[in-house]
Amino acid sequence: MIPLWLNSSFHLLVHGELHCTLPEEFDRRLSLISFDNSIEASIACYLNLHPTQRGNRPYENQRVSVALHDYHTKLNFLFEEVTVRNGFCIITKQEFITVHKHRDLFYHENPDFIPSNAVLAKAREAALWVFAFLFEIPDLEAEISTRIKQIRKVDLYQRNKDVDELIDESYPEIEILGYSYKPSEVLYAVDPVYYREFVEDTLRTEKR
After folding, report:
1. Does 138 share its domain with 166?
2. Model pTM?
3. Which residues constitute the domain of residue 160?
């Protein structure tokens, strides 16, 4: 079971996996973006959690601030954490950077870029490993598979205007391929199961 405080990072993995299984070139691009974004988002999420939500591991504020500066400082923190935990990273730092450069190539230089099978597979492998390592999730692929099955089986939940407004007031708009979308639209499109749970939890809270 994925803890509630990890949902936003977990959804990026689910989104990447959903598009990775689809045949269109557009889906391959979205999959690469989601997996690459997940790497950075997972590290940032970990650093911003309360120690009780990350295995009671405290970090000095200065170290957190430095680590959150950019993509490369987040990677540095990740590899330091691997050493501290006596772990082993199955992805080299050069491979992380290569995946990120391919994402940037699509973002900033070539909108027609289509990631190769090798790049997409490495992005997926890296994203899943980072999340599983940092948050100590024993069978992350099973968690993702379960969520995708739920998404594909669920009847589309009717949108709730009041809850949509609550979501949109709480989170900034999300840019995808140069277009801005309201966070409620993205959540509903990416994970209708969680959208339904969020709506039902919100309505229950209002009735108390």
Report:
1. no
2. 0.73
3. 154-208
